[in-house]
UniProtKB/TrEMBL annotation:
The lineage of its organism: Eukaryota, Metazoa, Chordata, Craniata, Vertebrata. Gene3D superfamilies: MFS general substrate transporter like domains. It is a multi-pass membrane protein. Belongs to the major facilitator superfamily. Feline leukemia virus subgroup C receptor (TC 2.A.1.28.1) family. It holds the Pfam family MFS_1. It catalyses: heme b(in) = heme b(out); choline(out) = choline(in); ethanolamine(in) = ethanolamine(out). PANTHER family: HEME TRANSPORTER FLVCR2, MAJOR FACILITATOR SUPERFAMILY PROTEIN-RELATED. This is Choline/ethanolamine transporter FLVCR1. GO terms for cellular component: endoplasmic reticulum membrane; mitochondrial membrane; plasma membrane. Its main location: membrane. Uniporter that mediates the transport of extracellular choline and ethanolamine into cells, thereby playing a key role in phospholipid biosynthesis. Choline and ethanolamine are the precursors of phosphatidylcholine and phosphatidylethanolamine, respectively, the two most abundant phospholipids. Transport is not coupled with proton transport and is exclusively driven by the choline (or ethanolamine) gradient across the plasma membrane. Also acts as a heme b transporter that mediates heme efflux from the cytoplasm to the extracellular compartment. The keyword Oxidoreductase does not apply.
Amino acid sequence: MSSQDELSHEWMDSLGNCSPRKERTGLGEYGHPLGDDCDTLEPSFVDTAQLFPLMETKLYKRRWVMLFVFSCYSMSNAFMWLQYGIISNIFMRFYSIDSLAIDWLSMIYFLTYIPLILPVMWLLDSRGIRDVVVVGSAFNCIGAWIKTSTANSNMFAMTFFGQFVCSVATVYILGIPSRLASLWFGQQEVSTACSIGVLGNQMGIAIGFLVPPILVPNVDDMTELAYHIRIMFYISAGVATFIFVLVIIVFQERPELPPTQAQAQARSIQPDEYSYMASIFRLLRNKPFMLLVVSYGLNVGCFYAISTLLNRMIIEHYPGEEVNAGRIGLTIVIAGMAGSLICGIWLDKTKTYKQTTLVVYVLSLVGMLVYAFTLNLGHLWVVFVTAGVLGFFMTGYLPLGFEFAVELTYPESEGTSSGLLNCSAQIFGIIFTISQGKIIDKWGTLAGNIFLCIFLLIGTVMTGKILTSAPCPRCNSAVIMLSTWNRTENNKILLILYYC
């Protein structure tokens, strides 16, 4: 038997019937992360633990600058996603197009993501986070400048092309928060950092709900309307350009010293020891993760559909309330930002990924039901309240999904797992947006929202299944996955451990 096999068997024997607590870390970082059932340690456990040399780690203050720069970049791109949809009735009249064409200005973000996510995630693994962020911010800047020339009623094709270029930048954004958090932040702040990274995107959505109705009033004079649209496009381009320059100057690949022992050991992996396609196939065979992929897609797809069609839903029951439609969208996102931050802090404190994800999913379903049945009551203040409750849980679920995915798939690349989650969200976003739009046109907003509630119920059931399908130390599932074997200069074996 090889020395690797001997060590693996020693670890299995030493664990016995323990219930190990999953930590996204190397063993040396927190000692022996075992449950309370393990009061004593076998000699083999102690001997093996000595093979984990402590490496030098450090938390840099610059990590917050990296997070801020990325959040600004994500914010700019998210704003341009919604700048058409929230005043869809105005752009429909300006470009003389139908509602489906306007919806595609939002859905192009979803469609672009699906074929590009795998090559971009390969680029993230092979070239690193800086190159991905620089390229993405360049696409964001170019797309914004293309749209500055489209404030003309016969330029819809060009504005669609500019939106397409901006949508390419989204592929370089959505999988970054969990990777950035792992590269720069400590074990006790990684979930909070991921939540803040997602907050940047949500802040852009919030601004996208609030600012366009203010910058582009619903006036009858087409020349004046074109002027207001042009102003909005130039502001977007100026901000995108400033952020692009900031990314080039400030953004770094990774800190000189790793923030955790897990990252220190991950750096010891040789490039030829990692296979991107093998990692994809391992993820596709991971049943709990695939359940999360589908349930995450259902939840976030519903959010995308609501965001895209919000103007139509509000205007149907409250004619002439374009500005308040934007404010309601702002309420959804601001409440979701609070939910995201609270969930991130909660995860860092408790590490209760499964339970928290299920509770938030159930409450998202409840919030959607309440919103659906109160939208037509004729009281805008009720819509504001119910939309805020819906946003708190539905938008707050976004970073939860990322962090839960990393926990289910560690030590696979955070960017790869996040990319697959987002790919699912884009697919369901297209399906739900088109379907709900057709249902609203034929049967009204209540039927469209009930349509989304049905799929949120399915997602809730699937999330519950994750709790029963995750690996268990008392069944045939592996308690420990020996993901990487590598020898240091001292010829000591390094392991990255996965605790179920």
